[in-house]
Amino acid sequence: MVTTATGIEVLARFGRALADPIRCRVLVALREAPAHPADLAELLGISRTRLSNHLACLRDCGLVVAVPVGRRTRYELADPRLGHALDDLLAAVVAVATDRTCLDADEQNCCT
């Protein structure tokens, strides 16, 4: 897929996708293996409607793709390198943040 987005716009889309904990959980689950929406909803403990909204966001961000499988649709990461990028990002964030505490969103100086 060819896009005219700049590198900054692409990173912003990735950040927007990661800004929600449920979308993070979806990406981590899909890093492990492709999955059908019903299975993802059950795994994450959320409704299919709520999951559908998050999958639409991840598709719009270009991070996941829907693959038709018969009468069902399976979701997977758009590129296997995204799984490696998620692993690297998680390792880097954990390494940097081991001595820091992120305050709740209601408190001042929140990292969100």
Automatic annotation (TrEMBL):
Gene3D superfamilies xref list: Winged helix-like DNA-binding domain superfamily/Winged helix DNA-binding domain (1.10.10.10)
Domain HTH arsR-type: 3-97
GO biological process annotation, one example: response to cadmium ion
The organism's place on the tree of life at top rank: Bacteria
Pfam families referenced in this protein's UniProt entry, alphabetically: HTH_5
A GO molecular-function annotation: DNA binding
Protein name: Transcriptional regulator
Species of the source: Spongiactinospora rosea
High-level lineage: Bacteria, Bacillati, Actinomycetota, Actinomycetes, Streptosporangiales
